[in-house]
Amino acid sequence: MMKKLFMTAILIAASIGLTNAQTAQKQIVEEGGTGPFKSEVVGDASCPGFTVYRPQNLKEVVAKQGALPVIVYANGACFNNNVEMRLLLSEVASYGYVAAAIGPYDEADVMAQWRGVLKAAYPETKGEVIMANGEKILPLTAEEKKARDEEQAKQREQALKNAKKNKKQPEAPHFQTYPKMLLEVLDWLTDQNANAGSEYYHCLNLDHVAAMGQSCGGAQVLGVSHDPRIKTCVMLNTGIGDMEMMGATKENLKNLHQPMFYMIGGPADIAYANAQKDYERIADNIPVVMLNSKDGHSGTYYEKYGGNYAKAVIKWLDWQLKGQVGQSALFLDDEYLKMKFPEWQGVRKNF
């Protein structure tokens, strides 16, 4: 009997140990960003489905600044990979935030990821595209576009033939992630913050949480926006409009209880029309700001330190989660917006 109790105790202790944050991989992106706290990208053995972006020397930063606000992030296309947003998330973390992004730790080349994205959907509203490494990306030539379209047509034709042969319609693509993952990682962070054996013990300000998503990831944000722990939502190149995506519809706009920030790439952004509909439909008691640039659906995420989109996101988070009222000028003062980003347009309501 005593032996059985002893073995049970060992198993319990082992299971508790596995719940503690355990940094397994780590990298520095763009020298840790431009903020006052150099950032790092972390893979954690106790939370393998997510990547954490945080300041280096976390405990020291918290000792000087206090517990840090939290961001939970969902990816474009609802992918299970956050590499494409690595420059922006690293930059945000360097300003004193802990961001947990859907997708396991990955050391893939950020520029290689963005090179493919930009080649496939070159922002027509931009004269040229320069990536963070200085590489200039050119749009596809007419010959390249023709070859791509022909290959895609062949693939569709083959899929239809296979479906006809099997007497069923082609299957819709399966998404690798789901909205609730944002709440699951928030639960994990909450547990870590309360666990004396964790790297994050008393490091997180869980009264100041943002949910952020790009494109399809914005639908995932709407899907969990009802959660009272989420104090603001950042919607990047996204909008639900009349669509249904990841279980979210325009009905989810009725669940909003927090200030909303939409950062859209102008009429060239595939999400533009949906975002306009969201803005009009959001209730009169919900503060909302929408900024529009001319950067299209890809924003400026491939530029150094995430470009101007990262600057806008940091200002919003500093205002909403840190109470830095001076940062509100970009969102409330048209003259300031024109001075900082002359090509951007902004609208707001319910302030």
Structure characterization notes:
The protein has helices at residues 2-19, 58-65, 86-93, 110-120, 142-166, 180-194, 216-224, 272-281, 307-322, 329-332, 334-340; strands at 23-27, 39-44, 50-55, 68-74, 98-102, 129-130, 136-137, 204-214, 230-236, 260-264, 288-292, 345-349. With 351 residues, it is of the alpha/beta class. The strands form two sheets. It has a ten-stranded mixed β-sheet, sandwiched between helices. Strands 6-7 form a two-stranded antiparallel ribbon. The radius of gyration is 22 Å and the shape is globular.
- How is the main sheet built? 10 strands, mixed
Order of helices and strands: HEEEHEHEHEEHHEHEEHEHHHE
Portion of residues in beta strands equals 15-25%
CA radius of gyration is: 22 Å
Which whole number gives the mean pLDDT?
91
Helical/strand content category: alpha/beta
Oligomerization state of this entry? Answer: single chain
* Beta strand count: 12
Distance between the first and last residues' Cα: 66 Å
Low-confidence region ranges = 1-18
Question: What is the 3D shape?
Answer: globular
Helical stretch count? 11
Numbering strands along the chain, what is their spatial order in the largest sheet? 1-2-3-5-4-8-9-10-11-12
The percent range for helix content is: 25-40%
List the helices and strands and how they pair.
Elements: H1 2-19, E1 23-27, E2 39-44, E3 50-55, H2 58-65, E4 68-74, H3 86-93, E5 98-102, H4 110-120, E6 129-130, E7 136-137, H5 142-166, H6 180-194, E8 204-214, H7 216-224, E9 230-236, E10 260-264, H8 272-281, E11 288-292, H9 307-322, H10 329-332, H11 334-340, E12 345-349
Parallel strand pairs: 4-5, 4-8, 8-9, 9-10, 10-11
Antiparallel strand pairs: 1-2, 2-3, 3-5, 6-7, 11-12
